């Protein structure tokens, strides 16, 4: 066994990475406000159909054309899973028409023949979708607030502010990537964002714990030295945890099927930026706020 004690001068790179983070946040916010988010059926309302076509000679353009002929509003068709599997989303919902799906099947039969089956059908009305979106946003805000209170109680207010800024940084950039790439935002993405909040907070708390310990241990050192020392002392734990988590998420992304791509992609971004922000966002804030030995809570 060997004991690896890195001595990387992280404080020398704080300014550079803070500028990079600011640029990423501005790009993310610009994309969110001007390009918007690609809300899925969960939040926008409409109908989702998972279709399997047995005739492999039928192309995606023919499937799209068949659904466009039905006057269902905005129609989105993409390949899904195995060859011959398609995911179709359109604006029109079942409403009060009990034969809505059966009518679609009849029209599809006329246009494409009978070599298909509906593996999944989901209908979300506009009222339900609006409530789901509101509930998702409330869940994110409440989770951030809960984390703020937790850190404030456990540490001093400077630590709390640093942690919450790091969390907001992670959430904005993750959602920004989804806006730029126009990946679908659905309930699973909200679940991923909430998980990111917990993961990033855990990483930050580990470093903050070591900062507090070292502030009490090295009474003559300044916060810059303490911060750099604490990051290096927890670096091996941070890298091992992040890499093992990323290995699992990459496996889900590449082998878990299309339906898990969005969730796993959000989680991958969250792990990367959560680890990054714990080092280059949360700690520089402690330095800016001039945390010292007097500002740390004394142990009983």
What does this protein look like?
It is a single chain. By secondary structure, this protein is α+β, with helices and mostly antiparallel strands. The chain contains 10 helices and 6 strands. A 4-stranded antiparallel sheet has the order 3-4-2-5. Helix 7 runs antiparallel to helix 8. The radius of gyration is 24 Å and the shape is elongated. It starts with 13 loop residues before the first helix and ends in a 12-residue tail after the last helix.
* Radius of gyration computed on alpha carbons: 24 Å
Task: Say how many strands there are.
Answer: 6
Task: Kindly report how far apart the N and C termini lie.
Answer: 36 Å
Structural class: alpha+beta
The number of helical elements comes to: 10
Q: Would you identify the regions where 5 or more consecutive residues have pLDDT less than 50?
A: none
Q: Which sheet architecture does the biggest sheet show?
A: 4 strands, antiparallel
| H and E order | HEHEHEEHEHHEHHHH
Mean pLDDT: 83
Sequence of strands across the biggest β-sheet? 3-4-2-5
Strand content: 5-15%
**C-alpha geometry:** elongated
Helix fraction, binned, reads 55-70%
Indicate the topology.
Layout: H1 14-34, E1 38-39, H2 41-44, E2 46-53, H3 60-68, E3 75-79, E4 85-90, H4 100-112, E5 116-124, H5 126-154, H6 157-181, E6 184-185, H7 187-217, H8 223-255, H9 261-280, H10 282-288
Parallel strand pairs: 1-6
Antiparallel strand pairs: 2-4, 2-5, 3-4
């Amino acid at each position: 066994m060997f004991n690896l004690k890195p001595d990387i001068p992280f404080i020398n790179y704080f300014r550079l990475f803070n500028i990079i983070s600011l640029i990423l946040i501005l790009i993310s916010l610009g994309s969110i406000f001007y390009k918007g988010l690609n809300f899925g059926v969960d939040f926008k309302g409409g109908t989702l159909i998972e279709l399997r076509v047995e005739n492999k000679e039928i192309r995606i353009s023919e499937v799209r054309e068949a659904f466009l002929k039905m006057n269902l509003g905005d129609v989105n068709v993409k390949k899904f899973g195995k060859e011959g599997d398609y995911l179709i989303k359109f604006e029109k919902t079942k409403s009060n028409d009990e034969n809505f799906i059966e009518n679609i099947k009849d029209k599809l039969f006329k246009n494409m023949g009978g070599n298909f089956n509906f593996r999944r059908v989901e209908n979300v009305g506009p009222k339900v979708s609006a409530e789901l979106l509101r509930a998702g946003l409330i869940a994110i805000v409440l989770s951030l607030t809960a984390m703020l209170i937790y850190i404030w109680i456990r540490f001093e207010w400077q630590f709390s502010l640093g942690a919450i800024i790091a969390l907001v940084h992670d959430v904005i950039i993750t959602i920004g990537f989804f806006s730029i790439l126009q990946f679908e935002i659905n309930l699973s993405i909200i679940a991923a964002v909430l998980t990111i909040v917990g993961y990033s907070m855990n990483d930050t708390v580990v470093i903050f714990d070591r900062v507090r310990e070292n502030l009490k241990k090295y009474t003559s050192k300044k916060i810059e030295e303490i911060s750099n020392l604490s990051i290096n002392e927890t670096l091996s734990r941070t890298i091992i945890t992040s890499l093992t988590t990323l290995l699992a998420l990459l496996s889900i992304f590449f082998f878990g099927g299309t339906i898990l791509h969005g969730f796993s992609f959000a989680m991958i971004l969250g792990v990367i930026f959560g680890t990054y922000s714990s080092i280059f966002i949360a700690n520089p804030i402690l330095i800016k706020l001039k945390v010292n030995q007097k500002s740390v809570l004394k142990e009983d």
